[in-house]
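Good morning N.,

You mentioned wanting to compare the apo and holo forms, so I went ahead and generated the holo version with glutamine. This is what I fed in:
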Amino acid sequence: MLSTIPLENQAFISLSNTREDILSGKYSAKDLCLHYVKKIKSEDRFNAFLEVFEASAMQAATVLDEKVSAGFKGKLTGAIIGIKDNLCYKDHRVSAASQILDGFESQFTATSVQRLIDEGAIIIGRLNCDEFAMGSSNENSSIGGVKNPLNTEYVPGGSSGGSAAAVAAGLCMATLGSDTGGSIRQPASFCGIVGLKPTYGRISRYGLIAFASSFDQIGPLTKSVEDAALLYQVMAGADPMDSTCSIKPVEGSIKSSKPRTFAYLQEVMDSPGLHPDVKAAFKHKLEALTSAGHTVKGVSFPYLDHMVPCYYVLTTAEASSNLARYDGVHYGKRSAASEDIPSTYFNSRTEGFGPEVKRRIMLGTFVLSTGYYDAYYSKGQKVRQLIKSATDAILAESDFIISPTTPHPAFKTGEKADDPIALYLEDIFTVQANLAGNPAISVPLGKTAVGLPFGIQLTAGSFKEADLFETAAQI
Ligand code: GLN
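and this is what came out, ligand included:
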């Protein structure tokens, strides 16, 4: 049966076509799952997968085939999905690519993952990422970096680098990532695929290992906008297990040919770090949109340079609080050198956390400390509110904010590893959506002369994902 699977030769097959193929008996879920298990084992030269859940995936596929014979028609029947290693899946290991969670097994399944499974998806494994989702290149994984499948000398982006690389390399059909400041969209841009960060509160965070709780969102990384929309539709919506998850009904897809208004930020266009190929392709796209009858206008956004500092003050504060739970007692690793409570805490954290995570915990503890709280954390909250108001004001006049996803394409492994500030600046165009809570999508825009892809980002008003999908598909 295996030879009938169209993906044998890497051709793209959508999630909905796969479903049809399985429902019509063209091939079984078991055959499809085996195909990907073998593919990961033989082709993952990129260090994208930390673990293949072979036994449970094959078991799930067998059960799914039986259910299909009995009439089951789930929306994601046969979708072979990988999950970032910060999403819980009951009785499977999860580590956030950190040594501090070494040996830890999830005791429950994340709502987002469960909703995929309920519609017939098969979870094939967990994917490498930056430790606790902190990073922009995947070089902060304690299990080793991920290579960009399009050119293995380059990084895949981060922190959902394994999730992006796995999709780009065709090792599974789609993946889940998390996006706190750009971690879905930036790797999607670097690997030439689609990545969506939904509106804050649109997808339940229950079962997502927290980094910065008021920023984190789960989202899909896919080969097409249609696949991203389908996964989003299945995962979105109220969840009693996450009080920040909105009860607003999830909009269905829309079809509209009406002209749209796109706002680009003048400061982005004038940004000195913008790669010439990215700038040229972006300008070209704006011209094409205008020729197609849409309105494109430049607007001023005076906060561009303040977004990254604001993001790092607030997210490190939240991270320092969230990561306090890893104490060598409750989860995963306990140092062998533990003698009493203080030495257990001290040694387990010293051995368990990597340098970037330690840096963020210290920064966050500092900005929350007595005497500095008002100067940093409170001020950061005020700046966040200003950014949100200014973003809302633009989106009251325009349907979308449009920008390159990142200032440049992927960089070489090691090129920025010693410069945390350079890595923090990777997020300059993506953090706005997280600070303001809006949904944003990255879709492929072009390639540089040396063949490295880069993406274009659309940001819409809160809960307007349907608009994003409709327009992103056209782009
Ligand atoms: N690169 C950003 C950071 O290091 C974004 C991370 C993310 O979105 N998880 O914080």
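The radius of gyration is 21 Å.

Happy to go through it together on a call whenever suits you.

Best,
F.
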